[in-house]
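Researcher: Let's do a round of design. I'm pasting the structure tokens now; please hold your answer until I've finished.
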């Protein structure tokens, strides 16, 4: 199914409008496990910062990951003393599990989380969530690897962080710069659809969420941060790295097979209605041309290598037919997924059958060129054969792109009935781990919460 034609496509982003004072606009989750020493000073510091600088109502949620020390008691006292603080207890460990549970149940339109050690300078918090409130972005992350970031940490952690991000770029084609920084935010309407697709419940949760969001075309905003490493961190580096690599393999395999329903996460182009009413304009032609050229270049190289190998044991016509057949199957599969964005196995057999028809046209062109060459000279040089085949393949390539675009992988969006524009997002929560079957536009109204606003819970 084409990503941009799915009936589950997210609506255009909108600026969150104003609403009654006291409604939490931002829910900051702090996952903790046995943090009885650091929890109270860090939560008080965060609360003071938000109370002093954040222009909207907020909530701080302490997500206790089955702590065995006095962390639950400390969290309970903070919830009693500070009206904006709440606590959530889980009986199983896992940062991803905690974030999924709290974010799924929260009614705040903007959801964030940060590590309890507050390694990231809190002055980056408002720049982090502002693009989500304004409707500009879907997710936001703090980046320690941005050029203007200032980071203090040891060489071992620096090496691990940069190596991990290089792995993500090389294996999953990730374009975001920092997957592991414990300083992220997401719009609730996006979280409701994205979280059911994220399988990991531990430290890889962040990376999986970002990779899926990026592959679905969601906008990820990056904020340079000032960050100081916590020397007392309890993260087990070897186990975390091993689990992360397993997660990279699992997500990469799922993306390659098209088994993820990323169609549900696509956004329309822009928020201007004129962008959705364009007619008689090819969709994504430039991107398709680039993808087709890349796939075509690799396929041509593959074809020439196959031809040279087959030519050593058979005649030129047979070698050409075998090489073209094998490369055509690979070319159709690659263009199906990478150039025209068709995911899943539905229609794959039909597409390959149509691709073989296109292959037949290419075979006729290349075979005819070889026949003409052999008629002109009885024993042509191997280099001459290759030159003739390249020229014939260029002509076949142009025709192949036109047939792929118009016949094999047509864009049927203009033929599909346009879905009714939703008027409001769904605010119905779902249990952690459950897939939300349906949703509506859950825009929660906002109003700047100033010290002079009246709120029954506000003692200021």
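Researcher: That's everything. Go ahead.
Model: Designed sequence:
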């Amino acid at each position: 199914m084409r990503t941009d034609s799915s009936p589950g496509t997210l609506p255009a982003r909108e600026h969150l409008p104003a609403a009654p004072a006291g409604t939490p606009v931002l829910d900051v989750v702090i996952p903790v496990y046995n943090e009885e020493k650091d929890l109270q000073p860090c939560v008080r510091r965060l609360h003071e910062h938000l109370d002093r600088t954040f222009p909207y109502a907020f909530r701080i949620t302490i997500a206790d990951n089955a702590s065995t020390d006095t962390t639950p008691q400390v969290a309970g006292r903070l919830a009693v003393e500070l009206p904006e603080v709440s606590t959530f207890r889980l009986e199983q460990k896992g940062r991803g599990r905690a974030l999924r549970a709290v974010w799924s149940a929260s009614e705040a339109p903007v959801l964030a989380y940060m590590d309890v050690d507050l390694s990231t300078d809190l002055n980056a918090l408002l720049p982090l969530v502002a693009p989500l409130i304004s409707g500009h972005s879907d997710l936001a992350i703090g980046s320690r690897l941005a050029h203007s970031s200032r980071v203090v940490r040891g060489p071992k952690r620096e090496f691990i962080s940069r190596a991990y991000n290089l792995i993500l770029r090389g294996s999953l084609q990730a374009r975001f710069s920092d997957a592991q920084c414990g300083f992220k935010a997401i719009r609730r309407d996006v979280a409701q659809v994205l979280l059911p697709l994220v399988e990991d419940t531990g430290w890889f949760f962040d990376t999986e969420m970002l990779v899926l969001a990026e592959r679905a075309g969601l906008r990820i905003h990056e904020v340079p941060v000032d960050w100081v490493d916590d020397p007392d961190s309890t993260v087990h580096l070897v186990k975390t790295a091993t689990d992360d690599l397993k997660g990279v393999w699992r997500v990469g395999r799922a993306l390659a097979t098209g088994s993820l329903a990323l169609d549900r996460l696509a956004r329309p182009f822009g928020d201007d209605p004129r962008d959705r009413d364009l007619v008689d304009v090819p969709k994504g032609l430039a991107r398709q041309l680039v993808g087709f050229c890349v796939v075509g270049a690799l396929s041509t190289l593959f074809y020439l290598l196959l031809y040279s190998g087959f030519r050593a044991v058979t005649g030129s016509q047979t070698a050409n037919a075998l090489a073209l057949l094998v490369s055509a199957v690979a070319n159709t599969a690659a263009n199906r997924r990478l150039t025209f964005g068709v995911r899943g196995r539905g229609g794959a057999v039909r597409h390959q059958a149509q691709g073989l028809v296109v292959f037949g046209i290419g075979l006729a062109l290349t075979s005819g060129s070889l026949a003409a060459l052999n008629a002109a000279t009885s024993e042509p040089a191997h280099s001459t054969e290759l030159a003739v085949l390249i020229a014939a393949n260029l002509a076949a390539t142009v025709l192949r792109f036109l047939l792929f675009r118009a016949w094999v992988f047509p864009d049927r969006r203009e033929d599909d009935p346009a879905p009714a524009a939703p008027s409001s997002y769904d605010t119905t929560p779902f249990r952690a781990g459950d897939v939300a079957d349906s949703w509506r536009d859950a825009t929660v109204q906002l109003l700047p919460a100033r010290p002079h606003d009246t709120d029954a819970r506000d003692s200021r």
